[in-house]
Design a protein that fits this description.
Elements: H1 2-26, H2 37-44, H3 48-63, H4 73-89, H5 94-103, H6 109-125, H7 131-143, H8 147-158, H9 166-177, H10 181-194, H11 198-228, E1 254-258, E2 261-265
Length: 276
């Protein structure tokens, strides 16, 4: 019975490939939607992994076509749906997630969010592969401009025994970019207290000094708001009543005032302007 199902699926796969190829002759940027995963699971029975792989091949053929100049949103919905179905049918197949990250996440913040939903399935299937949650954190930070969510993921990843030491430090940095200075300092303090490498501990101390300085400025800004009934327009309004000059920060960090939050930032972490 399994052999018969496998033969039928191979025939179906060749038919799908043939249809995709013929469509490519008149429209290189067309990607058909996949049937719903429950229907494919029932139809394929024991061979649902092969059905998921067939969808992966279809998308791989599509992405290998001449897509230069084609509007990504014209195929984004169908691509997202294909990735959702193939990963539900075959969650252990790692290449599906590589392609999803490469081709879907960059289309728009909405599709970066859809990619992260699919990556949740990848993380559940492969809990010890660190680059999968790294993909998700990268999407939060780069495509979705949500540094706090990225920080939480990096903090979680930093607890993995094979995680590089900079994961914890980067979590604190992203927390600072999100304006949550107190949480960022607490996070770095906890990482420093458990760190054994002296070099890494010194880096943590320098970062904590930056957080302490930024929190003093935030306190001054809060006091300014209470006394004047409005936020300071710039940090220069804190001089000379609160500071003779703004505190010095280590490692090229800067203070960015975006009322009502003060951000601790590093210019070299700014992402480049998106190409149009």
């Amino acid at each position: 019975m399994k052999k018969i199902i496998a033969i039928v699926l191979v025939v179906l796969y060749l038919a799908v490939w043939g249809m995709q190829k013929s469509k490519g002759e008149w429209s290189d940027y067309y990607l058909s939607p996949a049937p719903p995963a429950p229907a494919m699971r029932i139809a394929s029975g024991y061979a649902q992994q092969m059905a998921g792989f067939a969808l992966f091949v279809k998308v791989a053929i599509f992405t290998g076509g001449p897509l230069i100049g084609v509007a990504k949103l014209s195929y984004a919905d169908n691509m997202s749906q294909n990735f959702e179905v193939m990963t539900e049918l075959y969650p252990d197949f790692i290449d599906s997630y590589h392609y999803c990250q490469s081709y879907l996440a960059s289309i728009s913040p909405e599709y970066a969010r859809k990619t992260n939903d699919i990556l949740d399935r990848a993380i559940a299937a492969h809990p010890d592969i660190l680059y999968l949650p790294f993909f998700k954190a990268f999407n939060y930070f780069y495509y979705m401009d949500q540094p706090l969510q990225a920080a939480e993921l990096f903090l979680s990843m930093s607890k993995h025994p094979d995680a590089p030491p900079w994961f914890g430090h980067f979590a604190g940095t992203l927390m600072a970019r999100g304006g949550n200075l107190a949480a960022g300092r607490t996070m770095l303090q906890a990482m420093m207290n458990t760190e054994k490498d002296e070099y890494i501990k010194r880096r943590y101390r320098r970062s904590i000094e930056n957080f302490n300085a930024a929190l003093k400025v935030q306190a001054a800004l809060d006091d300014f708001r209470e006394k004047h009934g409005e936020d300071a327009a710039t940090l220069d309004e804190l001089i000379p009543h609160y500071f003779s000059k703004l505190p010095h920060l280590n490692d090229n960090n800067v203070l960015v005032w975006q009322p009502p939050l003060l951000h601790l930032d590093r210019p070299n972490l700014h992402k480049p302007e998106a190409k149009k």
